[in-house]
Amino acid sequence: MDIEEWLRSLGLQQYGTAFRKNNVEAEVLLRLTAEDLKDIGVSSVGHRRKLLEAIAELRESSSAISAEGVKALTQVAELASAPASPTGAERRQLTVMFADLVGSTAISARVDPEEMSEIIRGYQNCCAGEITRFEGHIAKFMGDGVLAYFGWPRAHEDDAERAVRAGLAVASSVAQLRAPDGKPLAGRVGIATGLVVVGELVGDKEARERAVVGETPTLASRLQDLARPGSVIVAESTRHLLGDLFELEDLGPQVLKGFETALKAYSVRGEGRAESRFEAFHTGALTKLVGREQELALLLERWSRAEEGEGQVILLSGEPGIGKSRIVRALREHLANESYIPLSNYCSPYHTNSALYPVVGLLERAAHFDRDDTAEMKLDKLETLLARGGEQDREAAQVLAALLAIPTETRYPPIDLPPQRIKQRTLEILVEQLAGLAKQKPVLAVYEDVHWIDPSTLELLGLVIERVQRLPALVLITFRPEFSPPWTSHAHVTQLSLSRLTRRHGAAVALRVTGGKALPREVLDQIMARTDGVPLFVEELTKTVLESGLLRDVGNHFELTGTLPPLAIPATLHDSLMARLDHLAPVKEVAQIGAVIGREFSHDLLAAVAPHDEGKLQDALAQLCRSELIYCRGAPPEATYSFKHALVQDAAYSSLLKTRRQQMHARIAAALEERVAAGSEALPEIIAHHCTEAGLIERAVSYWWQAAQSAIQRSAILESIAHLENGLRLVRTLPDTQERVRLELDMQVALGTAFMAAKGWSSPATAAAFARAEELCERVDDITLRSVADYGRYLVYLLRGQLDAALATTTSMLRRAECDCDRATIMIAHRCVGITSVHRGDFDAGRKHMEASLALYDPNEHAALAYRFAYDPRIANLCYIAHALLHLGYPDQAFEKYTELLQAIRHHRHSPSAAFGLFQSALFCTYSRDLGAYKRDSNFGADEAIVDELISISTEHGFSLWRTAGVILKGWVLIQAGESDSGLAQMRDGIVEWRGHDAKLFVPRWLLMLASALSRLGNPRAALDRIEEGLALITETNERWNETELHLRKGELLLDLKADEKAEASFLHALTVAQHQRAKLWELRAATSLARLWVQGSERQRAHDLLAPVCGWFTEGFATPDIKEARTFLDLVES
Fold first, then answer.
1. Which of 210, 675, 930, 985 has the greatest CB tally within 10 Å of its CB?
2. Angle between helices 823-839 and 783-799 in degrees, nearest 10
3. How do residues 673-682 score in pLDDT, each as one tens digit?
């Protein structure tokens, strides 16, 4: 501001020299008093009054802003000359303002250049003052334009609102300025919000500045071009952050230079009508805010029940920051004087596919493992830990040692169990440990952040919940709302959802943070007004205030050191934590490096990758611990640190530039690899994660492949799928070499096989995986991989009911294998041709192919093929040989194979093979006509137990197709047991679900069983409809192995409906089909049904002539219901 020009405008230019001699500048002018003016030499009372009135006007309009502007004008230079922060540029969500002086070109054409300079200076001062008042950062003055940032270098929770308020103030204040000719000036403002990279120092010497990279500044500039004089326009991205704080006019999509698509824009008309910020951001129905007394009382009441032996489970849900961990801690504090056993399990976002990761951590902590412990020392500690739980079994220590990756060769013999059984025993031991501990003292078992739980721990948790209801134990499970707990139907399970706090309870949280010292009322008012009842927001904002220097401790309370500015209240927890991290700038990098490692990180790994000496590192960590950003367990260098909340880690991690993250991930991966090379254990999926984020694609792919193979060997199918998908996403980015194609094919085949087990043969995921594998096979000369790809395509065809295509695929596969003399592939191809033949009703050909396959099977050489071809070849062959033999009229031999099959299932280590075998075993029982007839024979086991085991193992491992089959078969079992209504409902639901797998195979069988159930319930017409549906499907798919039985059932239903002639035709059709298929047992059933009908019609001789030769054909199976019934009836006819 030019003081002499101002005096001239008042007609008091004679005082210009006096003002200059007394160093009266713009900032001093605003504070002049009447006494000051008298001292300067203004003796006239009239002149003094005129000057004081003019100064008052300046204060009310632009002079006060100019004072702020003087301060702001130096901001850019000071920031540019400041040394770079340790972390350099950062990623930030930034709200950018671009302000422009309207018509500056026209003004410059009609005024003197010196006058134009004064106009620009006044305009800049005006903008700078308002922007600074709202704590924005002036990035650059560009003549008649001003670029400002809200959200950097200091973050606020309401940066978008600040930018709009500053924009409105700029527009209003500029309108108070005048050109030399007296005409008012006008400004216009554009505002946009988005993700940018900000803080990098660019340019040289005087031109140096902190640059921002991203489209957001350009968008703000383009929006400013659209604005009318005196108006503010905001982008859609900013509008989403404003709620109803302002009245906005929707300008619709706008075509902007440099942007490919039209973008919506809004004109800010003024303040909104909402009475408060809370109302502005919560226009819908509000959830009633309650304290935590009721929730804690409920927890304690459930604990009391648990202490009395009535085990309880509480499902504690809530949004991030709502206080789930806080209430868990409060419960523990209430139990501090009680004798109980705490068990804490912490899930991790980086270990969602690491089996039993929370449990491993619990065991290591409970056993007090130290880094330098030898294997023997760890085993000693583990045995001691198990003994505390009442477990003295060496097998338990052996199994858990395997889980903890402790070598056991010097103490225990190798575990002689299949991976499936090892996993099962692991879960059993863990559940029994909890039960053993509960017999000594009540147990509080906490599972935190279950929305990040791995499948194996989820399975364990289900077992724990089942078991705990008979134990003195409380299981407390915390999770975010996006997780859907599958245990809500249990009577001993209570659901508890945390809502936001009232002001009274929020103030109590703030008081605890301050150590019981009261905050000034206006400070507490701002904290409560800005945090909207989210406990973590209250806690973090209170700590921010305590660390800000705004308060001084005066004993039992705090006082403000000055005027209270608007606090940096977080709109999200991330914003709040970014503000705290900014305040802890000297140690911020350590928090960021820790965040890259993970939610939990060890001191030694951090030391290996952080660019700090040990002393500085420990000082930084101590400061982070004091600020409660992280917690520490143990003492350095043995310490382990964990972020107080997952979102704390997210905030620190997200602030790093991608290039910086990559560098840190690479260093972490290298450090972990060095540990592996030195003999330490490290999960391959963890190294894979860091290599992936580091952009070390080839190494990442290798580790994902290792992790997948390890998971497959453990029958952790769901985990293997996750690892394979991660690896395949990367492998496709590698150069297109033969080696890459071979690796992708290996992984693609493994993925298809895993999908086959988890999602079903014909699922879109399975089909897509094998389709891609086939494409790759065209470039790789490997008959084994080609055969797996063909096999996958064959199973898709098979389950979808495309049996002709399935047979053509497998026949071609067999021919190729025979040409290549590949024994393993010949064996697999024979099996596939055989299975397809059985489904087509060609039982004799099917039997021959499968017996040829079985003859080639060498358990030492071929057992591992189960991992490539989804199921063990021997188990699959035994299943269908038993089916074929039964249909062909050799029931004793069939039951021998059935018994052999059950034994093979019990001894096999591959869970998908076990599930497949159990399904076929249960199905075999349904073909024996009387499902309960064989329960009396201990050689054949119990069909209900088989079905239950099928459902159990399929649910446990995520085998959705076989679980669905189990549901259908369970419904059939229930119907046979007299529970008709529930059984029928279960069968119907299961059939719908089966068809949802895009499956037509077996559907005629399901419809036949459903028809039998409907007939049993006295609904023959509905049953007949199902039979017709099944026969139509047979015509469509050519799956004919149930054709005879469908016609037989149709005939029986027609008899019930008194349609004897039609029934006879159905029986004759059944007889013809059975004879064509050489299905002697079914021929016997058809002949028996016809003979009964003919005898009723007085055609005894005809009945005898039909039935006698069929009965006489059989050389075995005389104890089976079919043959016994036929022979008895024949004797009756002959008598």
1. 210
2. 10
3. 988 887 777 7
